[in-house]
Amino acid sequence: MINKILTILFVFVSFNAFSQDKPNIEWVRVEAGSFMMGCENTDKDCYPDEQPIHKVNIKTFLISKYEVTIGEYKLFCKANNRKMPLSPSWEQTDSHPIVYISWQDAVDYAKWVGGRLPTEAEWEYAARGGNKSKGYIFSGSNNYDEVGWSYENSDLKTHQVGEKKPNELGIYDMSGNVWEWVNDNYEIFYYQESPSSNPQGPKQGLGKSNRGGCFNFDYKLMRTSHRRGSGHETLGFGTGFRIAKDVKSN
Protein backbone atom coordinates (compact mmCIF):
# COMPACT_ATOMS: atom_id res chain seq x y z
CA MET A 1 0.00 0.00 0.00
CA ILE A 2 2.79 2.42 0.96
CA ASN A 3 4.67 1.56 -2.24
CA LYS A 4 1.56 2.30 -4.30
CA ILE A 5 1.12 5.69 -2.61
CA LEU A 6 4.79 6.54 -3.19
CA THR A 7 4.45 5.58 -6.85
CA ILE A 8 1.40 7.82 -7.28
CA LEU A 9 3.21 10.71 -5.58
CA PHE A 10 6.26 10.20 -7.80
CA VAL A 11 4.14 10.27 -10.97
CA PHE A 12 2.27 13.36 -9.76
CA VAL A 13 5.46 15.25 -8.91
CA SER A 14 7.14 14.16 -12.15
CA PHE A 15 4.15 15.29 -14.20
CA ASN A 16 4.11 18.69 -12.54
CA ALA A 17 7.84 19.12 -12.98
CA PHE A 18 7.51 18.25 -16.66
CA SER A 19 4.59 20.64 -17.08
CA GLN A 20 6.60 23.44 -15.53
CA ASP A 21 9.36 22.87 -18.12
CA LYS A 22 7.14 24.45 -20.76
CA PRO A 23 6.32 28.16 -20.82
CA ASN A 24 3.02 29.46 -19.54
CA ILE A 25 1.84 31.19 -22.69
CA GLU A 26 -0.70 33.99 -22.45
CA TRP A 27 -3.09 33.55 -25.34
CA VAL A 28 -5.39 36.17 -26.82
CA ARG A 29 -8.55 34.93 -28.51
CA VAL A 30 -9.10 36.56 -31.89
CA GLU A 31 -12.74 36.20 -32.87
CA ALA A 32 -13.71 35.40 -36.44
CA GLY A 33 -14.37 38.30 -38.76
CA SER A 34 -13.45 39.98 -42.01
CA PHE A 35 -11.13 42.86 -42.82
CA MET A 36 -9.51 44.68 -45.70
CA MET A 37 -6.00 43.27 -46.07
CA GLY A 38 -3.24 45.34 -47.64
CA CYS A 39 -3.26 49.07 -48.30
CA GLU A 40 -4.78 51.56 -50.71
CA ASN A 41 -2.73 52.61 -53.73
CA THR A 42 -3.34 56.20 -52.66
CA ASP A 43 -1.17 55.61 -49.57
CA LYS A 44 2.27 57.06 -50.34
CA ASP A 45 3.92 54.64 -47.88
CA CYS A 46 2.38 51.58 -49.54
CA TYR A 47 4.59 49.02 -51.35
CA PRO A 48 3.50 47.04 -54.44
CA ASP A 49 3.39 43.78 -52.46
CA GLU A 50 0.71 45.27 -50.18
CA GLN A 51 -1.67 45.71 -53.12
CA PRO A 52 -4.37 45.33 -54.14
CA ILE A 53 -6.30 45.83 -50.93
CA HIS A 54 -8.78 42.96 -50.65
CA LYS A 55 -11.37 41.54 -48.28
CA VAL A 56 -10.36 38.51 -46.22
CA ASN A 57 -12.44 36.34 -43.89
CA ILE A 58 -10.68 34.85 -40.86
CA LYS A 59 -11.88 32.09 -38.54
CA THR A 60 -11.42 32.30 -34.77
CA PHE A 61 -7.91 31.51 -33.51
CA LEU A 62 -5.55 32.20 -30.61
CA ILE A 63 -2.36 34.25 -30.77
CA SER A 64 0.29 34.85 -28.14
CA LYS A 65 0.02 38.15 -26.31
CA TYR A 66 3.79 38.64 -26.53
CA GLU A 67 6.66 37.78 -28.84
CA VAL A 68 8.46 34.61 -27.77
CA THR A 69 11.08 35.56 -25.19
CA ILE A 70 14.60 34.38 -24.48
CA GLY A 71 13.43 32.76 -21.25
CA GLU A 72 10.73 30.79 -23.04
CA TYR A 73 13.09 29.67 -25.78
CA LYS A 74 15.65 28.51 -23.20
CA LEU A 75 13.11 25.96 -21.95
CA PHE A 76 12.65 24.67 -25.50
CA CYS A 77 16.40 24.30 -26.05
CA LYS A 78 16.89 22.55 -22.71
CA ALA A 79 14.05 20.10 -23.31
CA ASN A 80 15.21 19.27 -26.83
CA ASN A 81 18.98 19.33 -26.31
CA ARG A 82 19.43 22.24 -28.69
CA LYS A 83 21.92 25.07 -28.53
CA MET A 84 20.68 28.57 -27.84
CA PRO A 85 21.03 30.92 -30.82
CA LEU A 86 23.60 33.69 -30.99
CA SER A 87 23.23 36.70 -28.74
CA PRO A 88 23.38 40.24 -30.12
CA SER A 89 25.88 42.77 -28.80
CA TRP A 90 23.53 44.55 -26.39
CA GLU A 91 22.53 43.40 -22.93
CA GLN A 92 19.41 41.23 -22.76
CA THR A 93 17.22 39.62 -20.13
CA ASP A 94 14.94 36.59 -20.28
CA SER A 95 12.10 39.02 -21.06
CA HIS A 96 13.64 40.23 -24.32
CA PRO A 97 12.39 38.67 -27.58
CA ILE A 98 14.46 35.77 -28.85
CA VAL A 99 16.33 36.61 -32.07
CA TYR A 100 18.67 34.88 -34.54
CA ILE A 101 15.84 32.45 -35.17
CA SER A 102 15.26 30.73 -38.51
CA TRP A 103 11.78 30.04 -39.82
CA GLN A 104 12.20 26.33 -39.05
CA ASP A 105 13.37 27.11 -35.50
CA ALA A 106 10.14 29.06 -35.01
CA VAL A 107 8.04 26.22 -36.44
CA ASP A 108 9.75 23.67 -34.18
CA TYR A 109 9.18 25.77 -31.07
CA ALA A 110 5.54 26.36 -31.97
CA LYS A 111 4.92 22.62 -32.37
CA TRP A 112 6.64 21.93 -29.05
CA VAL A 113 4.22 24.16 -27.16
CA GLY A 114 1.21 22.81 -29.06
CA GLY A 115 0.80 25.71 -31.45
CA ARG A 116 1.90 26.89 -34.87
CA LEU A 117 2.97 30.03 -36.64
CA PRO A 118 0.15 32.41 -37.60
CA THR A 119 -0.68 32.80 -41.25
CA GLU A 120 0.11 36.15 -42.78
CA ALA A 121 -3.59 37.00 -42.93
CA GLU A 122 -4.16 35.99 -39.30
CA TRP A 123 -1.19 38.06 -38.25
CA GLU A 124 -2.44 41.20 -40.01
CA TYR A 125 -6.00 40.72 -38.76
CA ALA A 126 -4.75 40.43 -35.17
CA ALA A 127 -2.34 43.36 -35.59
CA ARG A 128 -5.20 45.54 -36.83
CA GLY A 129 -7.23 44.69 -33.73
CA GLY A 130 -9.49 41.99 -35.17
CA ASN A 131 -13.19 42.78 -34.84
CA LYS A 132 -12.32 45.56 -32.38
CA SER A 133 -10.17 47.43 -34.89
CA LYS A 134 -10.19 51.22 -34.82
CA GLY A 135 -8.38 51.44 -38.14
CA TYR A 136 -4.99 52.55 -36.84
CA ILE A 137 -1.93 52.75 -39.08
CA PHE A 138 0.19 50.87 -36.57
CA SER A 139 -0.90 48.08 -34.24
CA GLY A 140 -2.84 49.99 -31.60
CA SER A 141 -2.19 53.61 -32.55
CA ASN A 142 -1.54 56.13 -35.30
CA ASN A 143 1.50 57.21 -33.28
CA TYR A 144 4.28 54.66 -33.76
CA ASP A 145 6.09 55.73 -30.59
CA GLU A 146 3.13 54.68 -28.41
CA VAL A 147 3.15 51.08 -29.55
CA GLY A 148 6.53 50.01 -30.87
CA TRP A 149 10.29 50.21 -31.14
CA SER A 150 11.88 51.36 -34.40
CA TYR A 151 15.07 52.99 -35.61
CA GLU A 152 13.79 56.32 -34.36
CA ASN A 153 13.27 55.43 -30.68
CA SER A 154 14.96 52.10 -29.84
CA ASP A 155 18.61 53.11 -29.32
CA LEU A 156 19.22 50.37 -31.91
CA LYS A 157 18.49 47.43 -29.65
CA THR A 158 15.58 45.17 -28.79
CA HIS A 159 13.50 45.88 -25.71
CA GLN A 160 11.69 43.69 -23.22
CA VAL A 161 8.33 42.56 -24.51
CA GLY A 162 5.23 44.42 -23.38
CA GLU A 163 6.83 47.77 -22.57
CA LYS A 164 4.71 49.72 -25.05
CA LYS A 165 0.95 50.14 -25.34
CA PRO A 166 -1.02 47.06 -26.55
CA ASN A 167 -3.42 47.11 -29.47
CA GLU A 168 -7.22 46.87 -29.32
CA LEU A 169 -7.07 43.14 -28.50
CA GLY A 170 -4.45 43.51 -25.80
CA ILE A 171 -1.58 42.20 -27.95
CA TYR A 172 1.86 43.77 -27.55
CA ASP A 173 4.69 44.62 -29.96
CA MET A 174 2.99 43.75 -33.24
CA SER A 175 4.52 46.97 -34.53
CA GLY A 176 8.27 47.09 -34.07
CA ASN A 177 10.80 45.49 -31.72
CA VAL A 178 11.51 42.47 -33.96
CA TRP A 179 10.28 41.13 -37.28
CA GLU A 180 7.99 38.15 -36.72
CA TRP A 181 8.04 35.02 -38.84
CA VAL A 182 4.67 33.87 -40.14
CA ASN A 183 3.84 30.57 -41.78
CA ASP A 184 3.33 31.70 -45.39
CA ASN A 185 5.67 31.64 -48.32
CA TYR A 186 6.39 35.17 -49.54
CA GLU A 187 5.35 36.17 -53.05
CA ILE A 188 5.26 39.79 -54.21
CA PHE A 189 2.05 39.58 -56.24
CA TYR A 190 0.17 37.05 -54.11
CA TYR A 191 -2.59 39.53 -53.25
CA GLN A 192 -3.72 39.50 -56.88
CA GLU A 193 -4.83 35.88 -56.50
CA SER A 194 -5.25 35.35 -52.77
CA PRO A 195 -8.44 33.50 -51.75
CA SER A 196 -10.86 35.44 -49.59
CA SER A 197 -11.31 32.90 -46.79
CA ASN A 198 -8.46 31.97 -44.45
CA PRO A 199 -5.66 32.29 -47.03
CA GLN A 200 -2.61 30.13 -46.36
CA GLY A 201 -0.18 31.88 -48.69
CA PRO A 202 1.22 30.83 -52.08
CA LYS A 203 2.46 27.28 -52.69
CA GLN A 204 5.85 28.66 -53.68
CA GLY A 205 7.59 31.91 -52.94
CA LEU A 206 10.73 33.95 -52.43
CA GLY A 207 11.44 32.71 -48.92
CA LYS A 208 9.07 33.13 -45.99
CA SER A 209 7.06 36.14 -44.87
CA ASN A 210 7.82 38.12 -41.75
CA ARG A 211 5.85 41.01 -40.37
CA GLY A 212 5.75 43.94 -37.99
CA GLY A 213 8.88 45.98 -38.54
CA CYS A 214 11.92 46.09 -36.33
CA PHE A 215 13.96 48.16 -33.89
CA ASN A 216 16.58 49.05 -36.53
CA PHE A 217 14.20 49.86 -39.41
CA ASP A 218 12.25 52.99 -40.26
CA TYR A 219 8.99 53.35 -38.32
CA LYS A 220 6.96 53.34 -41.55
CA LEU A 221 7.70 49.62 -41.88
CA MET A 222 5.81 49.07 -38.62
CA ARG A 223 2.52 49.64 -40.47
CA THR A 224 0.16 46.68 -40.05
CA SER A 225 -0.01 46.08 -43.80
CA HIS A 226 3.74 46.07 -44.47
CA ARG A 227 5.20 42.82 -45.78
CA ARG A 228 8.71 41.42 -46.05
CA GLY A 229 10.22 38.20 -47.34
CA SER A 230 13.37 36.47 -46.07
CA GLY A 231 15.08 33.18 -46.82
CA HIS A 232 13.74 30.55 -44.44
CA GLU A 233 17.24 29.88 -43.07
CA THR A 234 17.94 33.56 -42.42
CA LEU A 235 19.25 34.32 -38.92
CA GLY A 236 18.91 37.97 -38.00
CA PHE A 237 19.45 39.95 -34.81
CA GLY A 238 16.16 41.67 -35.59
CA THR A 239 14.00 38.62 -36.35
CA GLY A 240 11.91 36.67 -33.86
CA PHE A 241 8.34 35.37 -33.80
CA ARG A 242 5.09 34.84 -31.92
CA ILE A 243 2.83 31.83 -32.10
CA ALA A 244 -0.79 30.99 -32.84
CA LYS A 245 -3.11 28.13 -32.06
CA ASP A 246 -6.30 26.69 -33.50
CA VAL A 247 -9.50 26.92 -31.48
CA LYS A 248 -11.06 23.52 -30.97
CA SER A 249 -14.65 23.29 -32.12
CA ASN A 250 -17.13 21.75 -29.69
Write a structural description.
With 250 residues, this protein is of the alpha+beta class. The protein has five helices and nine strands; from the N terminus they run αββββααααβββββ. The strands form three sheets. The chain has a four-stranded mixed sheet. A three-stranded antiparallel sheet has the order 1-4-9, with helices on one face. The chain has a single domain, classed as Alpha-Beta Complex (paralog of FGE (formylglycine-generating enzyme)). The longest helix is centred in the first third of the chain and has 18 residues.
* Series of secondary-structure elements, N-terminal to C-terminal: HEEEEHHHHEEEEE
Mean pLDDT: 93
The biggest beta sheet reads: 4 strands, mixed
Number of strands: 9
Top CATH class:
Alpha Beta
What fraction, in percent, of the residue positions are helical? 10-25%
SS element count, helices? 5
Q: What general form does the structure show?
A: globular
| Protein structure class | alpha+beta
SSE inventory with pairings:
Layout: H1 2-19, E1 27-30, E2 33-37, E3 54-58, E4 61-64, H2 70-79, H3 103-112, H4 120-127, H5 144-147, E5 179-185, E6 208-211, E7 227-230, E8 239-241, E9 244-246
Parallel strand pairs: 5-8
Antiparallel strand pairs: 1-4, 2-3, 4-9, 5-6, 6-7
